[in-house]
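W.,

You were right to be curious about this one. When I first looked at the sequence I had no strong expectations either way, so I just let the prediction run and decided to look at it fresh. Below is the sequence, 88 residues in total, followed by the output.
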Amino acid sequence: MANIKSSQKDIIKSRKRKLRNTSKKSMLKTLIKKVHLAVITKNKENATIAFKKMQPVIDRCAMQGLIHKNKAARYKSNLLKNIKNMNY
């Protein structure tokens, strides 16, 4: 542990941020997996519903700097392409 009071506070803040960021990333990955699972099971209705729930979350994460904006765009583009290529 650091000896300087401000450094100790910085360490505490960084631990809190890390917990928050890992929680948000986990939530994001779960939403992406739900869309992907719906695409694999060829359930277009569930896939579109899951995509609509995932889209604002992924945009928010990109805006906050949790993931890169191009990565967010790539996720959305690929999943939407998979949903549109479903055969019914």
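Here's what jumped out at me. The chain has one domain: 22-84. And, maybe more interesting for your project: The first helix runs from residue 5 to 40.

Coffee later to discuss?

I.
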